[in-house]
Write a structure and sequence with these properties.
9 helices, elongated
Length: 182
């Protein structure tokens, strides 16, 4: 159900996702929803976001292990997001963005989740950029820029049904990574 909820959030957003959507996609019995998620939709969304961020950090970590430079890490990070969007036929965005945008003030747990999730991704990238020899403060600024660039490219590419935003953001970030990595 958590994975199905994440897919629904990525496709429809928080408000447009209903338990019935999650049940249909997961093929779980109706009675299991409130047994497993007594906190309701907010709890399910938080768990879906937690899963999403764990997967994102794991992708970043795998990309960093395979990368030989900050340029290669940026290329892999943005490339994976682009590939995921194309594979979903431009229907799936980020599971975190709807929680940040749509739930503001609706739930303390949901409000906190977005910050924690994006912080985890930024921390992972910061550590990897620093490991490539980029100064810690510059690595943190660049990690913020990479995450913001990826999120912006994701939204814009989805709206335009084109990978061009990813290619543009990637080119700029890769140029900056090359300068920082010297």
């Amino acid at each position: 159900m958590v994975r199905a909820a994440g897919q629904c959030l990525r496709e429809r957003g928080y408000h447009a996702t209903a338990f019935s959507d999650v049940l249909a996609l997961s093929e779980a019995p109706r009675g299991s929803v409130y047994f497993h998620f007594p906190g309701g939709k907010a709890q399910l969304a938080v768990e879906a976001a937690e899963l999403h961020v764990r997967e994102q950090v794991a992708q970043i970590d795998r990309a960093a292990v395979a990368a030989g430079s900050p340029v290669e890490l940026v290329h892999a990070y943005l490339g994976q997001a682009r590939e995921n969007l194309v594979a979903a036929d431009y229907r799936q965005g980020c599971a975190l963005a709807p929680l940040v945008i749509e739930s503001a003030g609706g739930s303390d747990e949901l409000d906190a989740m977005g910050g924690k999730a994006f912080s985890a991704m930024i921390e992972s990238l910061t550590g990897h950029f620093a490991a490539f020899g980029i100064d810690e403060a510059a690595a943190r600024r660049f990690a913020h820029t990479a995450v913001a660039g990826m999120e912006g490219a994701l939204v814009t590419a989805r709206a335009l049904r084109s990978t061009e935003p990813f290619e543009a953001v990637s080119a700029v970030l890769e140029s900056q990574a090359a300068l920082l990595g010297q």
